[in-house]
Specification:
The protein is an all-alpha fold. It contains six helices and no strands.
Length: 115
């Protein structure tokens, strides 16, 4: 046994005659300057935004806003409040909103219209 380890990929390349036939000099494109300026999370956010991704809580925010503006009954207020509870669990703390009441619907329309 002449090798102390198994090099499966190296063995496969050697058998195919490609072991020393790789030339990578000058290949590929350089990384963009902005790629090196951002951390991993910032790059992810940019890629997600460019792809049209919306976080769940932002989708809920738009849905709740539409529901508040079209609300007519107390039963609809209960549905809205369930959505607000779900929204508050998933959004950043500074964006959390209070529940809606049927009597305070006009005030809630103002709160939810700024979104």
């Amino acid at each position: 046994m002449e090798k102390k380890y198994n090099d499966l990929i190296g063995d496969m390349l050697e058998k195919s005659g490609e072991k020393d036939n790789f030339n990578f000099k000058g290949k590929g494109k350089p990384l963009p300057k902005e790629y090196l300026e951002m951390d991993t999370f910032q790059r992810f956010q940019k890629i997600a935004k460019d792809a049209g991704y919306l976080p769940h809580w932002l989708k809920l925010q738009k849905e709740i806003s539409n529901l508040v503006h079209s609300c007519q009954t107390e039963k609809e207020v209960e549905v809205i409040n369930e959505k607000i509870r779900e929204y508050n669990k998933s959004c950043p703390p500074q964006f959390q909103k209070s529940l809606v009441s049927f009597n305070g619907l006009e005030n809630s329309k103002k709160v939810w219209s700024n979104l």
